[in-house]
Each structure stands twice: as structure tokens, then as C-alpha cells.
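Sequence, C-alpha cells reproduced for reference:
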Amino acid sequence: MKNDNIKNTVTVIGGGLGGLFVAAFLSKEGYRVTVLEKNKIIGGGLQTFYSHGISFETGMHLLGGMREGGALNKICHYLGIYDKIDICDTDHDCMDQITYFSDGKTYRVPEGREAFAEYFATEFPSERDNIYAYVDAIYKMVDEIDFFYLRPDNEHVYTHSEEFMLPADNFVARYIKDPKLRDLLCYMNPMFGGVKGKTPTYIHALINVLYIDGPSRFAVNSQQMADALADIICENGGAVIGDDKVVGIDIADKMITALHTQHGNMYSSDYYISAIHPLEMLKMTDSKAFSKAFRDRIAEAPNSYSSFCAYFIFKPDSFPFINHTCYCQNDYGKVWNYSEYDAEDWPRGFMYMTPFEKEQGKYAVKMVVNAIMPYSVVEQWSDTSTGNRGREYEEWKQQHINKILDRMEILYPGFVDKVEYMFGSSPLTIRDYYDEPEGALYGMSKDCNNIAQSQVSVYTKVRNLFLTGQNINLHGFCGVPLTAVYTAEAIVGHNVILNKINEYNARV
């Protein structure tokens, strides 16, 4: 039903996860919101593309916080979209599987705090007390973060434990003595861009707790979430416009007066929200409202590493469906060094999954493999565009698909004979589709030694411009919508939406 009590107008730059969620929140609050997306298909990491008639998700393969009581579960119920999206749980007794090629050992990790701790305590009995202490510590740390549990907080008042900003690898080493177990407990690093000596412990703790509590997956594809959010915006008098990239921002007296798009359109509103990488937003204006110091800080902030993706479509009834994520490592001790690249031993680690189909049976239709890769590997083709990168690039890409095939052949002898079609994408693809500099999977990298460099507020020096998205607070399916709550509340008032989410879920 259209909301007739329109308060103000808002224009959002970027129709990805962050842009769509912040627009949905504000639409529900009575604002008329227009979302401008550069791609023809909205959704960002929620986008789905098709190859040989088969759909593939571009980014959102695993969902944290969607189980009952989880933050995203509550948000989706509040927005009225929970029943409009089709999701399923991963296997409860094995949410993740980790295989090491060096010793052939496979670990099958169950979900749930107690089951997780007991599993590793059984595998490493001499570390039993340490494992339980480690699990207690990450849960205690996450409990310090009010927004993770949708708890209203005191604005700008934060107190955290001494371990909160430790390098995550040092934190794990404080509790765990066995070097193999240290490596194993950090197997989720590809989910948050973990880097030795830099990644803050709170990120390690948040991601681990999020998935230990139970991951979910989209059935069929992730585009359904983007479409459900777009419906809320349109039903409340707004619009979601694809294939019209914002290329210019007019600013006068520290206020945006208009946005200009590549197709010559101009948009003016009361408020503006940028849901894209801050560096890309800054390129759209030369306004002195953004100081040279701020521009330099954003330009010099390191970005997280990127990924090479291989996609496989199986011959009918040939490869079993696996209802959990599988991680593989060449050897122990490498999990913190994914940002390094060596052509001889790449991929030193990767994750693979068989996505869930609508009528999922015993066999998988397809597989997605993500192998971390720094942008520097493809920088020689940085001036090219999708579909026009040349034969040398295509040959390079096939060589890397073959490297992944070699690993899969070790895991599943005869794997290549089960594949009907295969293709791949590189960090350049991520860069071009998501407007993420260097194809950064998780946006700007958080460095506990210089956290201020990559810490960006939702507020800006431009009074009617606010920021959201994975570069502003936390990345991922849970972190980005939570940040969108904060951004929306910068306009409607502190804790206004949080209180409404909690009140709604208390009634149902």
C-alpha cells in the first residue's frame, strides 16, 4: 500500500545491499526515496546472472543472522519481506567442512556454540579448556556490540575490552597453543578478508559468532531479496532506477543541490545517501566541502583483497548436492596470508559450494568456487572492460580455472568429466560490477594499527549527505543492513528504527 504521509525526499546512490536496505527503512518511515543504480540489474552483491540458462549468485552465498532471533531475521520481519524470500538452513551437523591437502584431514564443523566448542575439543583434546575459553571470549566480545543484537545504545558512547582491537591472529594465539588448531579456527578468514597482524579481533569474533549460531542460504538465487526490497520502496511512492550511473554531484554551501547521471538526468531531493565506495563518490565532485586531508585518507586507505571465481555447471545427476560450505587449504599456517600470490601454489586455499535449487534433490546443478586473489595479479588489464579484455586475459583466466580443476580432481576423482560447462571471473569483474576499487571483496580493509584510516562515519561535512554500505561499518549480509539502520537513523533520529524493529518483533 502506498504511503500517503510523505515527509521528505531522499536520493540514494547505489542499488546494492546497503542502498536498498536504507531506502526500504526510510520508505517505511514515510520518505519518498529514489535509488539510482549503475547496473541494469539492481542488487550489487545480491545480483543474479545467467549462463547456459542456469542462475548464479554474484556474492551473497551464505546468510548469517537469518535464524529465529537473529538480527536479520528481525529486520526482515519488520520490513515485511521475510515471507517473500525463500531461504533454507545449511546442515546442522556440518555447517562447514575444512580439508587440508597436506595431511588429507577433513574437519566437519557443526553449528551451535556448544557443539562447535565440543567438536574441536574432541579433535584436539589437549586444548579442550583453551577451546572453551576461546569460544567464551569471542561471544563475550560480540556481546559488547549493541547493534549486533539490535540493542538501542547511547549515541557515540563506546567502551570495549582490551582484546577488542588486538590483531585477530594474536588473539587466537593467546588462547590456543597448537599451531594447527590456530590455523583451523581461522578458516573463516576468506569471509572477512583476514590479514595477519592487521585484522581487528572484533571482526574475527563477529563473523565467527554469526555463522556458529547457524548459517542459511538462498534457495534458487539472491535476486529475490533485492526485488523484495525494491517492492517496499516502490509501494511507498519511491523508485528504483537501474542503468543510470551517477556521474556528478553539485554542492553549494555544504549542501548537495543536485545529482547528474550518465544519461543526462538530474535528481534533486532533501537528503542524499551514498551507498558506494567513498572513493568513487568523491570522484563525482570537486567540492571543497571535502577537505584534501579527507580525500587523501580515503584514497590511501588499503582495500581488502579480491577473488577469482570459477563456475561449473554439471551434467545431469552426476555430482552430489552438498548443503554446506567447503573450505580447502594446501597446508596449515597459510590462512592469514591470502593477500599474497604465488602462481606456483595458487590457490593455497579456496571455498566451494553447490547452490540450493528451488526443488533441490540428491544432485547438484552447479558449483561456485571462490579463491582469494590480490588485485595486483590482474592489474595489467586494468584499462579494459568486461567482454573486451583480449585473448591473453582469457587464456590467463582458463589457466586459473584449470588450477582449481586440478584441486577438485584430488577431492573428487573424475570431477572434470562431470562438468558440462565452466567459466570464470577475476578481480576485474568485481571492480567493474560493484564499483569497488581494486575489486575489493569487503571494501576498505580494517587495520587495528591504524583504524582511523579506514573508519568512515555515516555523517559527512555535506549536511544533507550520509554514507552507508560495506565501507562504512561492517561488510556482509548482516553487517551492511545493520549499518543501513544507523544511516537511516541519522535522518529520522537515533534509535527510532531500532526501537520499532524490536517493538514489532516483540508483538509477533
